[in-house]
């Protein structure tokens, strides 16, 4: 070890029982008892978001030690992806197995922040399982990808309560990862990785050989 270097400290991390105990292992649907599986996860400094097989989003506030629940109306279906964002308001995007995407604008106790829970829906473009979500840093843009290769751009106006969505790219294989920064969307599929320039609507492939 180089002189003056800080010593390495090993830590043992335990299961988050305080979080897991707040999520039911089974729910009752009529006469049936349904096992709850945890299907998606995202974290930041304020929240831990956990998606489930029953279409319920469990959102744990790390500062208040409180668990809240959010769900989709209608059909109960598995949540496949969740993505948190902390900007001026706290936002969480949720994708499901049938291609539904919703954005929840969370309530904040801080002055000048959002005081009422609001939900925005990305209507009817995805028809298959959501596999990736990516936010712009200011929360005004959301990109969603599915397992049929479709990528949808949603423009959010939180002040007006408006969400406008459009299909921007379609790949021949499933989307596995999205990341957005400075008007460039990084897209990884089962076959290739590419850069999508959102202003020019042009594509630049990363590398030359397709994935096997």
Automatic annotation (TrEMBL):
One GO-annotated biological process of the protein: protein exit from endoplasmic reticulum
SMART domains per record: WD40
GO cellular component: cytoplasm
Pfam family name, one: WD40
Name under which the protein is recorded: TCPR2 protein
């Amino acid at each position: 070890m180089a002189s003056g270097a800080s010593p390495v400290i090993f830590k043992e991390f335990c299961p988050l029982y305080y979080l897991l105990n707040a999520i039911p292992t089974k729910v009752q649907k009529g006469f049936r008892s349904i096992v709850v599986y945890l299907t998606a996860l995202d974290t930041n400094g304020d929240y831990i978001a956990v998606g489930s097989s029953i279409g319920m989003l469990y959102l744990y506030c790390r500062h208040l030690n409180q668990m809240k629940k959010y769900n989709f109306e209608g059909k109960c279906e598995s949540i496949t992806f969740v993505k948190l964002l902390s900007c001026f308001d706290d936002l969480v995007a949720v994708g499901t197995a049938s291609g539904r995407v919703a954005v929840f604008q969370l309530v904040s106790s801080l002055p000048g922040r959002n005081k009422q829970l609001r939900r925005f829906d990305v209507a009817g473009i995805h028809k298959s399982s959501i596999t990736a979500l990516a936010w712009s840093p200011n929360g005004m843009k959301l990109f969603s990808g599915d397992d049929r290769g479709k990528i949808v751009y949603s423009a959010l106006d939180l002040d007006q309560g408006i969400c406008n969505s459009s299909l921007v790219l379609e790949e021949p294989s499933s989307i596995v990862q999205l990341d957005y920064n400075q008007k460039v969307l990084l897209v990884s599929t089962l076959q290739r990785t590419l850069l999508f320039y959102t202003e020019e609507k042009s594509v630049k492939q990363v590398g030359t050989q397709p994935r096997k």
